[in-house]
Amino acid sequence: MTRRTDQLKLGAFLANSGHHVAAWRHPLAQADASLDFAHFRAIAETAERGKFDALFIADVVALWGHHHDALSRTARAEHFEPLTLMSALAAVTTHIGLIATATTSYNEPYHIARKFASLDHLSGGRAAWNLVTSVVSDEAWNFGREQHIDHGDRYQRAEEFHDVVKGLWDSWDDDAFVRDKASGQYFDPAKLHTLNHRGEHFAVRGPLNVARPPQGHPVLVQAGASPAGRTLAARVAEVIFASASDLADAQAFYQDIKARAADLGRDPDHIKILPGITPFIAESREQAQALFDEFQALIDPVLGLRLLADTLGEDIDLSGHDLDGPLPETPVGQRGSRRDKVLELAQKENLSIRQLYLRLAGGNPVIGTAADIADHFEAWFEARACDGFNVFFPYFPGGIEVFVDQVIPLLQERGLFRREYQGRTLRENLGLPRPANRFSRP
Ligand SMILES: Cc1cc2nc3c(=O)[nH]c(=O)nc-3n(C[C@H](O)[C@H](O)[C@H](O)COP(=O)(O)O)c2cc1C
């Protein structure tokens, strides 16, 4: 296979004290980081020094779990609302993209179109929307429902939601605001377009009360791996946040998405696929493994069992089972693609309950020296398993500092990563085209 001529795209995943679920307990991590803006600012500045494409924040619009005993052992009960934090970070950074997660299940399209258009203006064209359909059913209870919307219905709503948001972003031609003091004309009414959307889920007249975003449309990011998720991704995503456990899986996902996009008439290069990856870096492999083991040892079994149940089905109580024995018969529950992957993993590797929850909690670690991490990135990239990575730093701030100081220079030396930002907007840095306005006359 010929060597690639493009370069890695890298996202820096923001997570309070760190991505590892027990990070806040580790001496290298800051325990009270969750609502400390100075902490996030320092991470953003380090990521920008490392020329990362974007910062990335996940979101859940509920307390992360109603099992307070487990939750109370994590630093996840408090977190900033993503668009608010990204707006503040926009003011203290200049080039890095700002990817905020917002769900289509418990929002209205007008709100989302307006907020992301605002963030795009605030940041000079660095906004991106990570469109999710909500993975946590507790969200329903905060929005007048007693049950989560069904998986299929969530995706139908997401499709229409997405189309309405994009339509609203096209409310104004790029040059609609003339602001001509002499004539007294602020905008040209001929360049204002009313969407008049009436669909199954939404009736939205428009227009949007924000000018067309600098990027035309903020970059569209998507995370969802089921057939419905992939269908949506192939049609609309420009960046896909993927979860891939091994190289063959990642290659299959990559090929599937790129082929689906091509079938729909899209250029496959205009979808960047970024699996999540957690690097544990030290001077030697032994030290890196020891570092990983330290974090894993801090996971309380109450928390570990809850993580497992959250993935397999909320009603499952594994507390009466031997932690070092096998998982009982396949539990009930409808959790989509993540659950299926975990059950498959347990069976394939014959894992005990404890081993399985440690695997889940440990994420997708790559453990080794800076050169090992760079080798891993290179191998996956060249094998066309990804276009880059969404990097989960196990602890902050040291986890990203060591990555930027040691791994980034290696990737740069190998020609795999930029030394300077090429563009002004996130779209330009990712090599994505600026969409035309559907209503504009040429
Ligand atoms: C890598 C990845 C990250 C996700 N991040 C979020 C998130 O931050 N918030 C959220 O509500 N859902 C998140 N989701 C959930 C998806 O939006 C979707 O609801 C879920 O994966 C079920 O759909 P699926 O069966 O198509 O995967 C994520 C999914 C994946 C695969």
Walk me through this protein's architecture.
The chain has 14 helices and 11 strands. The chain is an alpha/beta fold and about 450 residues long. It has a single domain (about 10-295, about 365-430), classed as TIM Barrel. Strands 1-2-3-4-7-8-9-11 form an 8-stranded parallel β-barrel, surrounded by 7 helices. Strand 5 and strand 6 form a beta hairpin. The radius of gyration is 22 Å and the shape is globular. The protein starts with 8 loop residues before the first strand and ends in a 12-residue tail after the last helix. Flavin mononucleotide binds next to strand 3 and helix 6.
Quick description:
With about 450 residues, the protein is an alpha/beta fold.
Features:
11 strands; two-stranded antiparallel sheet; TIM Barrel; eight-stranded parallel beta barrel; 12% strand; single chain; binds flavin mononucleotide
SSE arrangement:
Elements: E1 9-13, H1 37-49, E2 54-57, H2 68-71, H3 82-90, E3 97-103, H4 109-122, E4 127-132, H5 151-169, E5 197-198, E6 203-204, E7 219-222, H6 227-236, E8 239-242, H7 247-263, E9 272-281, H8 285-297, H9 301-312, H10 337-349, H11 353-362, E10 365-368, H12 370-382, E11 388-392, H13 398-413, H14 426-430
Parallel strand pairs: 1-2, 1-11, 2-3, 3-4, 4-7, 7-8, 8-9, 9-10, 9-11
Antiparallel strand pairs: 5-6
Helix pairs in contact: 3-4, 4-5, 5-6, 6-7, 9-11, 12-13
